[in-house]
Amino acid sequence: MFISPTPESIAALVARNIDGPVTMLNLIRFREIADYSDYPDLAPDEPISGQQAYEIYSGHTLPLLADVGGEVLFVGTGGPLLIGPEEAQWDSVLLVRYPDLAAFISMTQSPGYTAGAGHRTAALADSRLLPIQ
Question: Of 13, 50, 59, 81, which is the most buried if we count CB atoms within 10 A?
Answer without folding.
Answer: 50
